C-alpha cells in the first residue's frame, strides 16, 4: 500500500513570509494543528505545528547570569508583551527546519507509520522527487485508512 492511495492532496500551506498573526488566523479558521511551509516554487521549506507556535510565544522567565562577579539580569517578559513583539514576524523565524521528515507518494505505508510513531509527529509532508509539496499525511488519515481499508468486516 502506497502513500498516494490515502494522502491529502488539497493541502493548506503557507509561505515563509506570512506573519505569525496570519498563521494563527489560518490555523484557527481551518481548525488545523499545523501547516507545511513552502517557497515560491512550491518546495518544502519546513513545518509549523501548534506546538511550535506555543513554544515560540512562550514568555521568557527571569534569568540571572553571573559572569565572574559581573551579574546580568534578563527581566521576565509577559505574554502580552511577547505577543505584541511577535505578531508581525514572518513564520520563517519559528518553523522547523532541522530533522524535517518527509515521505514520497510511492513510499509504502509502513514508512509513514514508522516516522509518525518514532517521532510523535501529527503530520508528515509528502514531496515529489523535486522536493515540491504534493500532500500531507496525518495520524488521523492513517487510522481512518487502516480502519476502513485494512480491517474490513
From TrEMBL:
Protein origin, superkingdom: Bacteria
Domain CBS: 7-64, 95-153
SUPFAM superfamilies assigned: CBS-domain pair
Keyword S-adenosyl-L-methionine: no
InterPro entries for this protein: CBS_dom, CBS_dom_sf, Diverse_CBS-Domain
UniProt keyword annotations, A-Z: CBS domain
Record protein name field: CBS domain-containing protein
Amino acid at each position: 500500500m502506497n502513500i498516494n492511495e490515502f494522502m491529502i492532496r488539497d493541502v493548506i500551506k503557507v509561505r515563509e513570509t506570512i506573519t505569525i498573526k496570519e498563521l494563527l488566523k489560518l490555523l484557527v479558521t481551518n481548525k488545523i494543528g499545523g501547516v507545511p511551509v513552502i517557497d515560491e516554487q512550491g518546495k518544502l521549506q519546513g513545518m509549523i505545528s501548534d506546538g511550535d507556535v506555543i513554544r515560540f510565544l512562550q514568555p521568557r522567565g527571569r534569568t540571572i547570569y553571573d559572569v565572574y562577579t559581573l551579574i546580568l539580569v534578563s527581566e521576565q517578559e509577559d505574554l502580552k508583551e511577547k505577543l505584541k513583539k511577535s505578531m508581525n514576524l514572518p513564520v520563517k523565524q519559528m518553523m522547523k527546519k532541522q530533522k524535517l521528515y518527509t515521505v514520497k507518494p510511492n513510499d509504502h505505508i509502513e514508512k509513514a507509520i514508522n516516522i509518525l510513531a518514532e517521532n510523535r509527529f501529527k503530520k508528515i509532508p509528502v514531496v515529489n522527487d523535486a522536493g515540491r509539496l504534493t500532500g500531507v499525511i496525518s495520524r488521523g488519515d492513517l487510522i481512518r485508512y487502516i480502519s476502513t481499508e485494512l480491517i474490513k468486516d
